[in-house]
Amino acid sequence: MQASIKYIRKELAGVYPKEEIEGFVRLLFQHLKNYQLTDLLMKADEQLSPEETEQIKTIVDRLKQHEPVQYILGETEFFDLPFQVNQHVLIPRPETEELVQWILNQYAGTSPTILDVGTGSGCIPISLKHKLPEANIWACDISEKALETAQANARLNDTEVHFFEMDILHPQLPEAFPALNVLVSNPPYVTESEKEQMHPNVLEFEPSGALFVPDHQPLLFYRALADFAKKHLSQTGSLFWEINEAYGEACIALLKEKGFSNVQLKKDINGKDRMIFATCSTI
Ligand SMILES: C[S@@+](CC[C@H](N)C(=O)[O-])C[C@H]1O[C@@H](n2cnc3c(N)ncnc32)[C@H](O)[C@@H]1O
């Protein structure tokens, strides 16, 4: 094992910072052999099979091409739960965990009806259902392939979520769709002109339909979500959205213009305007 660890460190030096390479070493051996950090030390002399050595080479080659390690291994964690990921879904981000936590802070111990729009891997509804087992949870996406992945993740985590295909820009709901207590969404919100500042691992590997909006319509999805919320949230319902840090004030103005109350902007752990909340009524 020692020789393989040396190989990983040598091949990736100069491509990634040292700490990141150590992170890859841990993830790789956890994935291949279910080894934790202590196993790496205790079993350093263990011989890997030729297949394992070959697998490590392939993974290192893909890492050198800047492919995200989560796609290479096909898995990640969100809210301490395992999720399968692939090129059809965005890799769940820590900021989105903060959005889920904000909802849980308000709805712990209750059984709300919730819809997640643009569910991707299903990370939001599945972690909500895990923490709110009595909740009635729905989730939609425009991408059939993303929905397949989300469904697989619901099975993996033994949670019941009602998934359906829908374009939020032209919404058509399943029959007997219930009134909602919560509308949550992390829609595409990166403007085309922000592409230049993005890392190749995001640009070349993550699905562009999950990320981008045209420069001239940065609030495209938020407008559609606000109109949808007006129709389908119950009188005491609320919405929770992840937002582009540059459009916090614009989102506040949009929600006020559409008649929402109690509008609150929240910063993420990095101090950036990242989430917004609003209610239908003033109570
Ligand atoms: C930023 S990703 C968020 C994925 C996941 N909710 C998360 O937080 O990791 C946005 C998602 O919205 C979906 N999407 C894009 N356009 C859509 C549309 N018009 N209607 C519904 N979903 C859409 C994408 O397929 C993608 O899964």
From TrEMBL:
Give the signal peptide range. Answer: none
| SUPFAM superfamilies the UniProt entry points to | S-adenosyl-L-methionine-dependent methyltransferases
Reactions listed under catalytic activity: L-glutaminyl-[peptide chain release factor] + S-adenosyl-L-methionine = N(5)-methyl-L-glutaminyl-[peptide chain release factor] + S-adenosyl-L-homocysteine + H(+)
Q: Which UniProt keywords apply?
A: Methyltransferase, S-adenosyl-L-methionine, Transferase
Q: Where do the Release factor glutamine methyltransferase N-terminal domain residues begin and end?
A: 6-74
This entry's Enzyme Commission designation comes to 2.1.1.297
Q: Which domain of life is it from?
A: Bacteria
Q: Which residues form the Methyltransferase small domain?
A: 106-196
Binding residue positions for substrate: 186-189
The UniProt entry's GO biological process terms, in alphabetical order, are: methylation
Binding, S-adenosyl-L-methionine: 118-122, 141, 186
Any one GO MF term held by the record is:
peptide chain release factor N(5)-glutamine methyltransferase activity
InterPro entries, alphabetized: DNA_methylase_N6_adenine_CS (IPR002052), HemK-like (IPR004556), N5-glutamine_MTase (IPR050320), PrmC_N (IPR040758), RF_methyltr_PrmC (IPR019874), SAM-dependent_MTases_sf (IPR029063), Small_mtfrase_dom (IPR007848)
What Pfam families has UniProt attached to this entry?
MTS, PrmC_N
Supply the CDD domains for this chain: AdoMet_MTases
Role, per record: Methylates the class 1 translation termination release factors RF1/PrfA and RF2/PrfB on the glutamine residue of the universally conserved GGQ motif.
- PANTHER family (alphabetical): HEMK METHYLTRANSFERASE, MTRF1L RELEASE FACTOR GLUTAMINE METHYLTRANSFERASE
Instruction: Report the family membership.
Output: Belongs to the protein N5-glutamine methyltransferase family. PrmC subfamily.
User: What is the name of this protein?
Assistant: Release factor glutamine methyltransferase
